[in-house]
Amino acid sequence: MFIVMITPECAPVAKVGGLGDVVFGLCHELELRGNDVEIILPKYDCMRYDQIYGLRQVYDDLWVPFYDRWVHCSVFFGFVHGRKCFFIDAHSERNFFNRGAYYGQHDDPERFTFFCRAALEFMLKANKHPDIIHCHDWQTGIVPVLLFDIYKNYGMTHPRVCYTLHNLKHQGVTGDFILRATGLNRPDYYLQPDRLQDNFNRAAANLMKAGIVYSNFVTTVSPSYAGEIRHTDLSYGLGHTLHVHGGKFGGILNGIDYDVWNPEIDGHIARRYGINTLQDKFSNKEALRHRLLLQHAYKPIVSYVGRLDHQKGVELIRDALFYSLANGCQFVLLGSSDERGINHYFWQLKQRLNDNPDCHLEIGFDEDLSHLIYAGSDMIVLPSLFEPCGLTQMIALKYGTLPVVRATGGLKDTVFDADYSDRPYHERNGYVFNDFNFQGLESAMRRAIGMWYSYPQYFRELMVNGMRYDYSWNHPGGHYLNVYEYIRDK
User: Fold this and answer.
1) Which strands, in side-by-side order, build the sheet including 160-165?
2) How many domains, in total, are found in the chain?
3) pTM score of the predicted model
4) Is pLDDT of 155 > 80?
5) What is the span of the domain harbouring residue 389?
6) CATH label of the domain that carries residue 60
């Protein structure tokens, strides 16, 4: 099968969050299964060009309609750790992707709808007719609209579109000028409740809604999140649209790349280990303490790795820190925030705790250090307000680090409570709490810390249970191929 991914991210060359990891991991799995996969990305000036092999220009005469003019583009090709990637380079005074940042610009809707039009124009001119076009998040939601209302008239009648929702908090709500920009025009036609009209603002277009309405199948990144966004306010206004299109909607749990996240082969950690050499995990705990200047003591290490924002439960992360220190644990944090106030608060907290021998806050992100934290920690906290999928808990499980999570989204689908799960004991792998409050978090942490101190053999069994789980791309890859086959034959 010939599959084209149109996406704003692909790890490690253009990565902001889990979306980039998902695109890379899924593409790799699809290729292993014998499919021909190509990825189309914007050519950002801030990409990791050192992660692209053989980057070269392959097309120099791409003219893309935008508003009432044509924008000249070039297309580059290169391999990103074996994945075939095309990069759209726009020669425009608008400097669409030469901003030193991936997102967060005032004209993001225009930037990414231009990219969508350019990607389809390139596919048309290069005579690419894939079986499946797989689009990701609001940035590419306009693709199926352009494909079925414009490009099919130029001969692109073969492709079917799979559209994946990674986070409904960000939907690309914008003005009707986006219709003029892309050549769709006809605001009276498109700004209708059953098409692109935003469900809250009748004068606005919703790019994520466009993808839901016009694609052949819609997925999201875990089964529980699929239910939450249909039946709770986590839909951020798109619940009715998902209900109307429920016949072509489902949740497929993301996977992780065990070529990258695997303590048996990980070159970033102090000592490799597996289920049969679990005692070697302790060497990583000592290496983590040495690197972060923590005291060497008989205490568990509790950690947090990830963004610091309200979705991740930032107030509960802070509570987990102080609860750990007050209850015989050490605490390590690696993360930062796009919100200045949150970042400033944690910098202040870092200065306040700088001399504490049981605590280290690393504000920022360090890929190498993240591997050592997973390997050296005993527990990791993920008290998210909502979590579409989450990769952190699946990585932690592989490293024998017990997740303490809130029962939401993908966390609920992957972590099963040591005491209260209805699963048999050999399938339980962490600690789960339901209510988004201090009491819920502390209750789960109390049980986890108590198990570490009082019943080390049971704690070790939970570690082994987690390491046995297969959260690779093997199963999701098969599910996505089933979706592709289903829509290809329609």
Assistant:
1) 53-66, 69-80, 83-91, 36-42, 2-6, 132-136, 160-165, 217-220, 249-251
2) 2
3) 0.95
4) yes
5) 275-468
6) 3.40.50.2000
